[in-house]
Amino acid sequence: MPSFDLHLHTNNSDGSDSVKELIEKVTLAGIDIFSITDHDTIDGAIDASALIPEGKKFILGVELTCKARDIKCHILGYGYNPKNHELHELIKRGKVLRRQKLETRIKYLKEVWNIELTQEELNWLYSRNSVVKTHFANILVARGLASDNVSAMAKYLDGCKTGNTRFDGEEAITIIKNTGGIPVWAHPLGGEGETHLTETEFLPKLETMIDCGIQGLECYYSRYSIEETKFLLKCAENHNLIITGGSDYHGTNKSVPLGRLNTSDIKIDSKEITLLQAVQ
Question: What DSSP line would sit under 181-213, residue for residue?
Answer without folding.
Answer: -EEEESSTT--TTSPPPPHHHHHHHHHHHHHHT
